[in-house]
Amino acid sequence: MAKRQFEFELYRLNVVTGERLLFEQHLKPFADDNDILRTFQQATQPGLDETISGKRATYEWALRDFVDFKSDLGESLKIVGVTLARSITEKEGFVVTDEGIVSGSSEPDPPLAETVHLFVYIRRHLLVVERVSSIMASRRWLYSLQDMLKKSAEKLGYSTWMEFEPVPKKEEIYETFMSFSRLMRLRVRLRLPNPELSRFAERLFNEMRDGGIQEYLQDMRNTKGLNLQPGRLPRASVEIAQAGYKSGPVRLEGLREDRRTSVDVGTKATRGNIAGFRDFVRGMGKNAKSKEAQTMVNALIEEIDRIAPPPGGHGE
Question: What is the DSSP string of 248-305?
C-alpha cells in the first residue's frame, strides 16, 4: 500500500503587541522562545475554547494534545505539535418527524470533530498547518487559532501574542518584484523580523528595531520608477515580506512587458508534503519519543527547509 501523503501549508509566526495591552503594566512581553511554547501548551487546556455562531450552525474551536518532539539533529531543531479541532455543536436544517419534514435544529452530544494537526518549528518561527480542505475553505480556522493563543498569552501574563502570515512560495514576491521593467508603486505592511533576516534587509531591520517600530506601513511611489537595487528600501522591504514578516498582501504597480500592471502577491501559503507522515500524526502523542518520531520530525524539517530555505539574501 502506498504511503499516505501529508500535505501542509507554511505560515510565519509573528510576535505582536496591541495598543490596549501596551498600557497594562502588570503584563510582560515574551522573553524568549520558551514563552511562545508555553503559550501553545497553555492554549490546549479546557476553558480557552472559542464558540462561533453562524447563520445556520454553531461551531466550537479547540486546541488539544500538546506534544513536544526532540529532533535527533539537535535541541535547537525542536518541533512541537498541537491539534486544532472544529466541532459543530448545533446546526439548523430539516428534521424528520412522524407528521412530516419540518425546520429545526440538531445538537449532537457529544459533537463529532474535524481536526487539523499543527507543528511549530520554533527555531525558525514557522507554523506547519495540515491541509484539510473542509476546514481551510475559509480563514475562520486562522482567526480562531490566533484568538485562542491570545487568550492563552493573557492568561499567562504576557503583553504579546502571536499572529500568523502565509509564507509565500519560494521567491514569489521577489520574482514578481523583479519582473517589472519600471515599478512605480510598492505597498506593504511590514512586521519586525525575528529571527530570520537576509543580509540585504539588515539595514531596514536595524532602523525598525532602533526606532521601536513593530509594524511599518510603506506606500512607495515614483512614476519614473523605484530603485530595485540590493540594499535600497524597496528591495529590502520585499526581502522582509518574502520571509512572511508582513500583514496582508504586497501591492506592486508599474510596467511589465510594456503594459501597465497592478498585482497583489503574498496571500497564499507555500505547500509541502511528506509521504507516510499523515499516518504517523494520527498517533503522534503515543509515539513522540520513538525512533519513528525522530525520523518523521527530521523529514518534516528537511521539507520545510526545501520549500522555504533560510534567508541568505539575493545576490547583485
Answer: SPEEEEEEETTEEEEEEE--S--EEEEETHHHHHTTTTTTTTSHHHHHHHHHHHHHHH
Tallying the residues shown for the chain, one arrives at 316
The verdict on 115 and 233 lying in the same domain is no
The CB-side HSE value for 34 (13 A sphere, CA atoms) comes to: 2
Domain that holds residue 223: 172-265
pLDDT tens, 217-246?
Answer: 999 999 999 999 998 999 999 999 999 999
Give the pLDDT mean for 171-187: 96
pTM metric for this prediction: 0.89
Residues 30 and 132 in one domain: yes
Largest separation between any pair of C-alpha atoms in the chain: 77
Would you say 65 and 44 are in contact if contact means Cβ atoms under 8 Å apart?
A: yes
Do 25 and 65 share a structural domain?
yes
Q: How far apart are CA 168 and CA 243, in angstroms?
A: 8
> What whole-number distance in Å separates Cα of residue 196 and Cα of residue 243?
8
